[in-house]
Design brief:
Helix content is about 60%, strand content about 0%. By secondary structure, the chain is mainly α.
């Protein structure tokens, strides 16, 4: 639920993990691995669209 709420606005995996680590007792490596796995599942189900990181207009 936390990741879904954090995805209300475009975010990087790094910023997601920053917020998740402030909420939960999880190390960075585990957070990134598990977050990426969850995001891949959302993308596979077409519930998430991934955009390359870059400057915002």
């Amino acid at each position: 639920k936390a990741i879904w709420e954090l995805l209300a606005e475009p975010r990087t995996v790094a910023s997601l993990c920053d917020d998740l680590q402030s909420r939960f007792d999880v190390d960075r490596e585990t957070c990134e691995r598990d977050t990426l796995a969850f995001l891949r599942e959302l993308q596979k189900e077409e519930l998430l669209h991934v955009h390359p990181a870059g400057p915002t207009p």
